[in-house]
Design a protein that fits this description.
two-stranded antiparallel ribbon, mainly alpha, 50% helix
Length: 104
Amino acid sequence: MKSAPYLRKRRAEPLTGEVEHGYTPASMSEGPRRNDAWSGMGTGWGIVSTLLAGILVCGGLGYLIDLLIGAGRTFFAVGMVAGGIVGVYLVYVQYGRRDGDGRA
């Protein structure tokens, strides 16, 4: 009988000295495999969430400034644009600065 490929065989020795055979999941510290179809999904979601967070945070600050000084929606619009710029910059800093060999 074949086992699932993500399981590996382990040997556990209880205190009685008897050997017990079983399976344990592979460790999660191995990192993503480059040939895995889902390996880039984490990076993609990280980029999307960074862009949205920049827009929402700066837009929210602009909205609060508009409420405090009563300037209509001027600072809200400026905050949204500034948030987009800040989000793109943060994505560049976190994911885009690579050397020629592909390492940060």
